[in-house]
Amino acid sequence: MTGFLLRRLGGAVFVLLALTVILYAVFYVAPGDVAQIACGPRCSPAQVAQVTEQLRLDDPVYTQYWHFLQGIVAGQDFSTGTGVEHCSAPCLGVSYQSDQQVMQLILTKLPVTGSLVIGAFVCWILLGVGTGVLSVRRRGRVTERVLTWLTLAGTATPVFVIGLLLIIVFCSTLQWLPSPAYVPFTQDPEQWAWGLLLPWVSLALIESAKYARLTRSSMLETLAEDHVRTFRAYGVSERAIVGRHALRGAVAPVIALSALDFGSMFGGAVLTESLFGIPGIGRELVHAVKVVDLPVVVGMVLVTGFFVVLANALADMLYALADRRVVLS
Amino acid sequence: MTTPLVQVEDLTIDFGTVRAVDGLSFTLEAGAALGVVGESGSGKSASASALLGLHRGTGARVTGTVRVAGTDVGAADEAQLRALRGGKAAMVFQDPLSSLDPYYTVGDQIAEVYRVHNSVSRRAARARAVEVLDRVGIPDAARRARSRPHEFSGGMRQRALIAMALACEPRLIVADEPTTALDVTVQAQILDLLHDLRRETGMGLLLVTHDVGVAAESVDDILVMRHGRAVERGPVSEVLGAPSRPYTRELLASVPRLDGGRVGGPGPGAAPPGAGPLLEAVGLRREFGRGARRVTAVDGVSLTVRAGETLGIVGESGSGKTTLGRMLVRLEDPTAGRLRYGGREIGSLPEKDLRPFRRELQMVFQDPVASLNPRRSVGESVADPLRAAGETDETRIRDRVSGLLERVGLDAGRYERYPHEFSGGQRQRIGIARVLAAEPKLIVCDEPVSALDVTTQAQVIALLAELQGELGIGLVFIAHDLAVVRQVSDRVAVMRQGRIVEQGAVDEVYGSPQDPYTQQLLAAVPTLDPAHAAARRATRSELAAA
Questions:
Q1: Residue ranges of the ABC transporter domain (chain B) (predicted)?
Q2: What is the pLDDT confidence band of residue A84, given thresholds at 50, 70 and 90?
């Protein structure tokens, strides 16, 4: 197990390194005056010169990149014109447009996006797997067809349509829920949950369709296997066969898919965050792209990449726990 | 008069338009053992499943009456049926690997079944699981109950399935080909176990098998089935000793016997005495994996094959016989050792220098379904070696392929047909025709008949012998079935754990085996004579004790 973890860690570091190379190449080695772009349109020539020096833009490309990496690993000092500001590791640079360290910016947004993603994740697993199990239990009947139809409709509808509908119905017309807003968990857990309920549900409605189909097909596959015949021949009830034996077969694929979704959701819940006005990473990223705040864009993509890699490594371990035949190597 | 344990009357089972079982009637008294014997498609498994009502909800149409231990299976409701299944009658399935859930421990699976029929605590059910696992001879049962099926060997898995069947002390065990996936020595152990359990508990046994020998070892009465009907029923000694029906006689005649002679013999193509060997292997070795995970599949094997003779290679699964066979035709590269063909060293030749030899060294595989491309007509498959040899004239190719198809006993008019339209035996014939197209000097046959019914098996073996006599081909015949190897071989090599433990002329090895392992193998082969079987059961327990 330890050997596996070390190797997986090595792999993760390699993937992240490759990501930094690509990001650096795309954003900083791009044509045009990088310093002017990074600094923003209202920068004076002096400020642009300072940015050029900060980012070592006059040095050869590999030195620039090395400098960038060094910042992530060891931290960096930035001169702000009047004094020196230390940016401790992992330092993803400074946003020249908002005068904020990128890492600090991300750290303030992370709990927001985390709340959204984790809550939505719980909802979509419950909803997706539950629907899958139900449609297996009622296979061949009307319920199954209705469920299949509903999940299909869920996937086919864009999040801003579902979200808007939910807001109109539950907040405006019925007035059962307050308008979605983000209240930190540490401040008021109850407000936190109510405020995020609609975003969770709309994300879950979109995502759960995939999980329902995956659960259903893996369970049907397991039900066709010989060992299910054994338990039927021993009088085990259909309920126990579906709930214990068939569902077990669906665990591994669901874990694999969850890892991908969970990781990428950290950077990709853009539409949901914008629609419900949740000040998370996705909304910040959209803003940064709009005003071409280079350090912020690069930092956020890196952090998202980090979560994808992390979620996948976790999934591999869970996978091995779920299926003991898998040898971690 | 007591009611029989199993009473089947006029049972008919239809799968769509196919009638699998057609008006079958039989009874089984409490504590008795009945063997249901037949070839594939005879309806024996479908009948066995009907005893537990397993066709319910599958789309199969079942008519007639089936009464098992007082339950009318056809009329029973769900609860009654569940009480019957496992509680009064338990089923042991064929493939022990796929018949257990890979995700749960063996002990938990047995405990789950036990709790369906007995309202006891989890702890008590686990204790019962350990108890029955111990009874079926799983060593250190308390610990092994916590293993998952993949951590068990094939024989242990089959024991675990039998333990599951025993858990609720049923009155009847239905065993559907319980030993077909097992090695012959393991098969003997499982059959001995079933025998002992039956004597001890007084359960009835319905044993479904394609192997007449297995039935002869284990049951009192035999029911021979064909095309969904009962052909003959009677005490084992009568049915096997003096069969009254022509089909039973034909079936018995096809069963390869340990004391039978060689089919065919050296023909005009055989090498004259004193001629050098066609193929010679010296110290052949093959390893897989690296470092701590290195496995030696073949460990220093030396053998020779002459033109026109057959060398049989027998061994159990994992003995390295397939790897050896693949090395002999260079489908696998030897790790060490020499391989000489026609006086030339080919063991270490690079692929491009091997090309001239590829055509002369051919291989016939076990699975006739998997070794033919399902998307190409059989004629095209057979033509492959011709095209590979550079033949481009379409009419010549067609003539030659038609000739080959006819030579192996198929209608040349079926050139354009696809593999799924042929039976198992016919597909193996197609495989042989394809190999012949290359005009080989040596053919390695890897379990060529083990997927076939005995009557088909006999035909394919006869065909191989005939072709060998005619063409003087050297044959290496790899099989786990000792009786089949005896039928086809001039000389035989017995393999175990990558080594040849004994090698020699067939009559010597089978007549007076020297190696203890060979003796053990031969003692495990089922015999058709029930009296003989009982004697050998005793021999086996002596050998096991020794």
A1: 6-252, 279-522
A2: confident
Read off the pLDDT of each residue in B177-184 and give the average, rounded to a whole number.
Answer: 84
Q: So what's the pLDDT on residue B216?
A: 87
Q: What sign does the CA torsion over B501, B505, B508, B509 have? A: positive
Quote the pLDDT of residue B265.
Answer: 60
Please give the Cα distance from B88 to B229 (Å, whole number). Answer: 26
Please name the member of A227, A232, A324 whose beta carbon is closest to the beta carbon of B98: A227
CA distances from B478 to A148, B254, B324, B465, B486 (A): 52, 19, 9, 15, 11
CA dist A85 → A77, A78, A300, B250 (Å): 6, 5, 21, 97
Strands B89-92 and B172-176: parallel
Of the residues A230, A239, A326, the best mutation for testing chain B's interface (the one with the most B CB atoms within 10 Å of its CB) is: A230
Dist. CA A152–CA A130, nearest whole Å:
15
Contact across the interface for A234 and B90, Cβ inside 8 Å: yes
Whose CA is closest to B26, among B219, B213, B183?
B219
Q: Residue B85 gets which letter from DSSP?
A: B
Q: Are B135 and B201 in contact (CB under 8 A)?
A: no
| Half-sphere exposure in the Cβ direction for B365 (13 Å, CA) | 11
Chain B partners within 8 Å of A232 (Cβ): 54, 85
Q: Cα separation of A114 and A160, whole Å? A: 20
Q: Which residues of chain A make contact with B83, given a CB cutoff of 8 A?
A: 235
ipTM: 0.77
Distances (CA, A) of B365 to A149, B287, B372: 47, 22, 10
- Within 8 A of B117 by CB-CB distance, chain A residues are 235
A96 against B248, higher pLDDT: B248
Please name the helix (run of DSSP H) or strand (run of DSSP E) that holds residue B24, with its range, or none.
strand B18-28
Contacts of B90 in chain A (CB under 8 A): 233-234
Averaging pLDDT over each range in A54-63, A167-176, B268-277, B429-438, which range is the top one? B429-438
- Look at B112 and A324 and tell me if their CB atoms are within 8 Å: no
Residue in chain A lying closest to B89 (CA) = A234
- Measure Cα distances from B362 to A135, B376, B383, B443 in Å: 52, 21, 15, 5
Residue type, B466: E
The pLDDT of residue B106 is 94
Mutual angle of helices A281-290 and A102-137, in 10-degree steps: 130
Residue of A229, A234, A239 to mutate, testing the B interface (most B Cβ within 10 Å of its Cβ): A234
**Which tokens hold the place of A190?**
């109850």
The side-by-side arrangement of strands in the sheet containing B310-314 is B361-364, B442-446, B474-479, B310-314, B491-496, B499-505
Return the pLDDT at A326: 67
| CB distance B23 to B64 below 8 Å | yes
Burial of B539 (0-12, 13-18, 19+ CB in 10 A): middle
Among A226, A233, A325, whose Cβ lies nearest the Cβ of B52?
A: A233
Nearest CA in chain B to A223: B101
Q: For residues B271 and B79, what is the distance between their CA atoms, to the nearest angstrom? A: 70
CB contact under 8 A, B102 and A325: yes
| Mean pLDDT score, B420-425 | 84
Contact B183, B156 (CB under 8 A): no
Q: In the prediction, which pLDDT does B1 show?
A: 52
For residue A38, the SS3 value is: helix
Between CA B212 and CA B253 the distance in angstroms is 11
Q: Give the pLDDT band of residue B317 (cuts 50, 70, 90).
A: confident
Q: What is the largest CA-CA distance in chain B?
A: 79
Interface probe, candidates B97, B101, B150, chain A, greatest A C-beta count within 10 A: B101
Q: Which two tokens stand for residue B204?
A: 């009835």
